[in-house]
Write a structure and sequence with these properties.
- By secondary structure, this protein is α+β, with helices and mostly antiparallel strands.
- The chain is built from 4 helices and 27 strands.
- Strands 8, 11, 13, 14, 15 and 18 form a 6-stranded antiparallel β-sheet that branches. Strands 9, 10, 12, 16, 17 and 19 form a 6-stranded antiparallel β-sheet that branches.
- Strand 6 and strand 7 form a beta hairpin.
- The longest helix is centred in the C-terminal third of the chain and has 19 residues, at 359-377.
- The radius of gyration is 26 Å and the shape is globular.
- It starts with 5 loop residues before the first strand and ends in an 18-residue tail after the last strand.
Amino acid sequence: FEETHYLVLPNGPSGSGSLEAQVVSGFDQDDGSGNTVVTVSEAFSAQVQNAVAAYVSPIHPEELRVALNQAAVNLWPTLKVERIYHHINGSRAFNGVWDAWTSGVPDWWLKSNSALTVSRLYVPYFGAWGLTLVADGSARYLYLRPPMPSLLNELDGHAITLHAFLSAGAASSAGVSISDGAGNGATVFHSGVTGWQEIVTASRTITKSSPTQPVEFRLHVGASQTVQVGPVWTEGGPKTEILPLPGIFRRGPSRIGRSSETWPDFDRLPSRVGSFHMEETYPVPEGASTLSPVRLLRFDDLPPTGVSVMEFHGEDYVSRATVETDPYEVDPPFDEALYMGAIIELKSILSQEVSSSSGAFQRQLEADWRARLDELLGRQVMSSPRPVVSLTPALSEPGEGTDRWAWED
């Protein structure tokens, strides 16, 4: 245990939620009172309480993260993430099919109040996800706030309707409305009859937004009600020339398809959309007033208007982790390739450590693992990427439906 080991606390000491690691400077199997005592070289930021989970590892967690990230880069393009995104053609309700989520909420949509509960609907009306809204004892709503609000100002002077597929258990428990620089439009509600209904607002001539009266598309839920939401889109206005893309498309889409049907099944191949290119704008204020770049897709040949589903497909590097709890999105058997690649990087790191007395042994292990990885990459199955799932890195609690990784020779 001594000298070469680190004590890792995934839950942090009392009063701290951050991961911390220190070198183990002393170990006593039995202090005379039946206790095992581990002493670290430097104190943690706060007292470590009972029942705080700990790991002991010969490798610092930072080295694990570096190794995983480097392995992900080295295995491109064999190891890649398939990206997909849906958009309703001509709509200004961006991310209205709920493909993109960050920190438990759909990208670019904000709560009117923190008491509104937002979660993914795992049996959606269409696409990968739907949306479930649960209000507390007061009526609440979810509203669109795109990364560039000016994208909605191009609707100034145009007649717009907002559409949404809603499922609710009581009349007037779910509805949609449009708000703009002239105030709030009337809310149109679900009838309460069981099942999905397409709810449409009255046509509204949009007035350009101001800081105190922005253009917003709103999804309403009544007090103490639960509402399910399917696709949301707008109709009317000029053709859509520019679309913001969620962060998952870091490299941009490689192909775009447009279905000939309003709600196609998943077996139909959409027709290809022609020329497009990516633009990046910075700075853009996000909902929390933080500055970030926004990636815009500009159509060189405008697609036809009309209600139809557009599908955006692309490929990206496997997600890089920034902390030990970040997910790596990779599906078997590619997770095995990532595992082997990370082991190779770790062996390289360990062989170069000044204090290491086993450099030659670590280099031999690196060569052995590299031979195994080359054999795996030569298999035909590695040339056919599969749909993405998420695996959680070592030294953190396993995510739902995943297994803990074991780092062994």
